[in-house]
Amino acid sequence: MLIFILKRIGQMLLIMLIVSVMLFLLLEINVESVAVKVLGQYSTQEQRELWLQRNGYYDPIYERYGRWLWGFVTGDLGESVRFKKPINDFMWDRLWNTAVLGFWAMAFIIPLALVLGILSGMREGSWLDRTISVTSIITTSIPEFASAPLLAAIFVFGLGWLPGTSSMIGGFDWKQLVLPVAVLVIYDFGYVARMTRASMAEVMTTHYIRTAVLKGLPYRSVILKHALRNALIAPFTVIMLQIPWLLSGVIVVEFFFAYKGFGALLLEASLNQDILLIEAASMVAVFVVVATQTLSDIGYTYLNPRIRFT
Amino acid sequence: MALNFDENAPVLEIKDLNLSYWTRAGEIPAVIDFSLTVQKGESIGLVGESGCGKSTVAMAIMQYMGGNGSIKSGSIRFKGVELTELPPDELRTLRGSHISMIYQEPFAALNPSLTLGTQLKEVPMTHEGISDTEAHDRAAQVLADVRLPDPARVMAAYPHQISGGQQQRVVIAMALLSNPSLLLLDEPTTALDVTVEAGITKLIADISRKYGTSQIYISHNLGLILEVCDRVFVMYSGEVVEEGTINSLFTWPRHPYTHGLFGCIPLPTADKNAAPLRPIVGQLPLPHERPHGCNFGPRCKFFEDGRCDAKDVPMEPVAGTTSDHRVRCVRWREIDHSQDVAHGDAKDPMEIGDAVLAVEGMQKYYEVHDRSIKALLAGKSVMYVKANEQLNFDARRGETVAIVGESGCGKSTFAKVLMGLETATDGSIRHDGNDICKIPVRARSPQQIGSLQMVFQNPFDTLNPSHTIGTQIGRVIKKFGVETDKTKIRARVMELLDIVKLPRDFYIRRPRQLSGGQKQRIGIARAFAGNPSMVIADEPVSALDVSVAAAVTELLMEIQREHKTTLLFISHDLSVVRYLSDRIVVMYLGQIMERGTTEAIFAPPYHPYTEALLSAVPIADPEVTKREIVLEGNLPSALNPPQGCPFSTRCPRKVGTVCDDERPPVQMASDTHAIACHIPLEELARVEPVIVVPSEEERAHVAHQ
Fold first, then answer.
1. What is the rounded CA–CA span in Å between residue B603 and residue B691?
2. pLDDT band at B338 (very low <50, low <70, confident <90, very high)
3. Which residues on A lie below 8 Å from B94 (Cβ)?
4. Among A56, A67, B382, B605, which residue's CB has the most CB atoms within a 10 Å radius?
5. Most A CBs within 10 Å: which of B24, B104, B113, as the mutation test of the A interface?
6. How many helices (H) and strands (E) does chain B have?
7. Interface list for chain A against chain B, based on CB atoms closer than 8 Å
8. How many other C-beta atoms lie within 10 A of the C-beta of residue B576?
9. H-only helix segments in chain A
10. Which residues of B lie inside 8 Å of A (Cβ-Cβ)?
11. Do A3 and B372 touch (CB under 8 A)?
């Protein structure tokens, strides 16, 4: 197990290294454009060259890459052009905000999707199954940019129960979190529920479920003790894949509700061609993806005793 | 919720039961007019080929028919309680406590993500409401009863961590935990090795004798039924066609189908030349295409127009038997089965030619990497699985050589090396004069590949479902370079279809339109496409029903006879092997234990392992006597085989430490008969034969009594 984890961490580092090279080449191979992006359209050629000179952009590319990587490793992410301050000063707050949003979204998506998926997979083709399936297909097929205005129209402008923006200027406010979370939950729970249903339905046809029934166990115990754990193996992987999805999937929601999160930051960085910020944010995103996958593989071995990494 | 059992009533009484499945095509009657009574302590055998409805009966007793199955009419009474009208919660108290079931595939029947202890304990905890610790003790006790070593370890383990035989013992323990009155066994040993099967069969018999448990034993294996049951019901296409006590039914089968079944199984009296198997012609009718009158009519050679197909045939008691023998045949009084030869026409023995295959000192080791820290520190990260160790034997033209052994003995590895799917670690295999053991299949010429072909075990998986039969065989012909011209290839495919006795219009059929037996015929046609000098048949009939298996076996031998092909027959079933092979190689854990002609293998001197194998094979003939040898323990891991004789850990005739420490010497009992054992030949020769077949006179004497 220890060797497996070490191996996975090695793999993680390797993936991040490859992504960093690609990112760097993509964004910084053309130094001219870097200067333009940093200094703006109206800077003179002289100014640009001076800036490039001062920031070491005329050094060989591997040296620049090494410097950038070293800065990244030591925690110096550089300064954002857009916000005019060190990236370290604000990016982590943004990430935290998105984590809060993502946590609450998952806190609703996971139980809701699992319960509905299991209920519908338990008796495939039943009335309950059809209702749940149709509901989850409908909610999943409504995009976030449609459900966000719809919910806002009802709860903000119609009923006036909730605020329309979630910028949290006056500190953390529960009310402001409700709508963004709701939009994410509506969009995502159906997908996970469908996956759970398929997995549960398959488990219900296995011979060991027949064994459990013919042992004379109560139906409840057949489901909770015998079916559930096996049916959770597939959705577990799907849920772990939802976490990196949330990181970038929240862009629409964060933008719509003016929520100061990581997604909105990424969007802003891209729109303003804030190269160092894009690089830093991308690396964070890559890290989250790779880390959740490793966690999911480790968790998998606990759900499924047939897989043990030795 | 106490159920009022009538302890004087029969344990199970089924009357005129009709079961149907409902599909889009409409109602499909699965079981028709089924009646059965089981008394306390009685074992009932339910025999029949797949699709005859025997498992459906078991599921109906359990009241577990699935969404589309239902009981149309009839009654099922358990100790006087009508099961068909029982409310769900009362049914639940019955299931698993009064009636329990043992399943065909133990691995599928156990929950993979719960420990075996949890799965065992919940039975008494649910039914008797006892505490966890009490249940634990009970489970450990029953595990010890089913002779599982180290119950504590087994209870902490997950299903995949123990062997198939152990899994089945756990399933049996689970069924016995609450001491049921009725045990349903659905092919409980079909998925297991013969020696394991023998152990499990004996165990079930001992336990039911000890507790007076009644049993319904479902199997397609007549030999097994003979060993474990008191009465037997033969089913065909949803109906019971004959029932009677073991003695009466096995000695004087009355129904032509029962009689036909005996002609299909390789009994010790069958011989591939003098008394070949006689397959039943035709196929089982589909449930919705059953003929009018007798279901077996179209396949029966005693069929009489206007009588057999007039109306439904009732069960009639056979007069003159004391044992309540009943049969569903209008002509049973007229048919004199004793005049009817139970086997096909005799043929001349084959001429044996020059050596086609010579295996010398062949070895195949697999490297296994252990990546745990412990192994790395100990410097033992690479281990070897010795799949084949020092194999020596040869096969000649027109000869059938069988490799016998249980799973894990290395017989499939050897086949892979022959085919070039693996290359040997050491030694040589000369086929048609060329050493092929180190040439992978990709480096072999098309002629080489074509001349050494294989018939696979599972015909269901070996054909590509999206291509027609014609293109699949045609492609092989082209690849082997037999023909290149399109019309000639087509002609050759047609010829091959003729050879395997399939209609020519199968050319345009797809695999899903074929039955298992037909698919295996295609497999044989494919193997013979390149005019091979040698064909490896890896358990070619073990996945097929008895009557189909007999037909395929006969076909294979007929083609072999015609083409003078060498057949390497890989099997664990000694009765088939005895029937069709000229010479036998017995393998255990990658090594040859004994080799010799078929007669030599089946007579003393035996290797102790051969002795156990012979004893384990069930024989469907009540007059054949067998010495009982049950092997204890499991096959050792190939990663860590015993130092000396591989069989030393389970050998009932172990001499002493010499068996553990030293490789047994190969002793030559005759020019062709070799035994690898420490016991001197004279001593090995002194044992009684394991299987004793009475002579014709003795049989006649019994028949007159």
1. 9
2. low
3. 216
4. B605
5. B113
6. 24, 26
7. 2-3, 125, 206-208, 210-218, 221, 225-226, 229-230, 303-306, 310
8. 25
9. 2-28, 31-39, 45-54, 61-73, 87-122, 127-141, 144-151, 174-204, 207-214, 219-221, 228-249, 251-256, 262-271, 275-303
10. 62, 64, 67, 92-97, 100-101, 103, 105, 108-114, 118, 122-123, 126-127, 158, 160, 171, 174, 370-373
11. yes
Residue in chain B lying closest to A230 (CA) = B113
Place of tokens 């005049």: B339
Sign of CA dihedral B326, B330, B333, B334: negative
8 Å CB contact of A214 and B108: no
User: Which residues of chain B does A303 touch, with a Cβ-Cβ cutoff of 8 Å?
Assistant: 113
User: Cα distance from B96 to chain A (closest Cα, Å)?
Assistant: 4
Q: Which residue is associated with the tokens 């249980």?
A: B406
CA atoms within 13 A on the CB side of A187: 24
- pLDDT confidence band for B423 (50 / 70 / 90): confident
User: Which residue matches tokens 């249940």?
Assistant: B135
Please list the residues that pair with B326 across neighbouring strands.
Answer: B243, B317
Q: How far is CA A263 from CA A97, A165, A208, in A?
A: 10, 16, 45
Give the distance from residue A15's alpha carbon to the nearest chain B alpha carbon, in angstroms.
Answer: 23
The answer to whether the CB of B275 falls within 8 A of the CB of B693 is no
Cα separation, B149 vs B153, whole angstroms: 9
Q: Which residues in chain A have their CB less than 8 angstroms from residue B160's CB?
A: 305-306
Contact B318, B255 (CB under 8 A): no
How far is CA A16 from its chain centroid?
17
List beta partners, residue B567.
Answer: B400, B535
Separation CA B257–CA B241 (nearest Å): 8
Kind and range of the H or E run holding B207? helix B194-211
Sign of the CA dihedral with B100 first, then B104, B109, and B110 last: positive
pLDDT attached to residue B373: 67
Is there a cis peptide before residue B652, judged by omega within 30 degrees of 0? no
Is B126 close to A206, i.e. CB distance below 8 A?
no
**CB within 8 A of B430, min separation 6: which ones?**
B357, B358, B359, B360, B436
Mean pLDDT by 10 residues, chain A (310 residues): 80 86 79 73 81 78 82 77 77 85 89 91 87 90 84 80 73 78 88 91 90 88 88 87 81 84 85 81 85 83 69
Residue B702 reports pLDDT greater than 60 = no
pLDDT, mean of residues B308-321:
78
Interval B318-338 mean pLDDT: 76
Q: Which run of H or of E encompasses B534?
A: strand B534-538
Bridge partners, residue B219, by sequence: B47
Give how far Cα B597 sits from Cα of A176, B406, B669, Å: 87, 20, 11
Q: Pick the residue with more confidence: B27 or B110?
A: B110
DSSP string, B672-702: S-EEE-SS-HHHHHTSPPSEEPPPHHHHHHH
pTM of the full structure: 0.81
- CA-closest candidate to residue B482, choices B420, B529, B433, B543: B529
Query: What is the tens place of the pLDDT at every residue in B567-597?
Result: 999 988 888 888 888 899 999 888 899 999 9
pLDDT in tens, B544-567: 888 888 888 888 888 888 888 899
**pLDDT recorded at residue B342:** 58
Check: CB of residue B154 under 8 Å from CB of residue B148.
yes
B268-309 residue pLDDT tens: 777 777 778 888 877 778 777 788 888 888 888 888 788 888
* Structure tokens that stand for B638 in this block: 């190939």
Structural tokens at position B676: 């690898």
The rounded mean pLDDT for chain B is 84
Per-residue pLDDT, averaged over B386-410, amounts to 85
CB contact under 8 A, B113 and A211: no
At B354, the amino acid letter reads D
Question: Checking phi first, is residue B46 left (phi over 0); if not, alpha (psi -120 to 50) or beta?
Answer: beta
Rounded to a whole number of angstroms, the distance from the CA of A301 to the nearest CA of chain B is 11
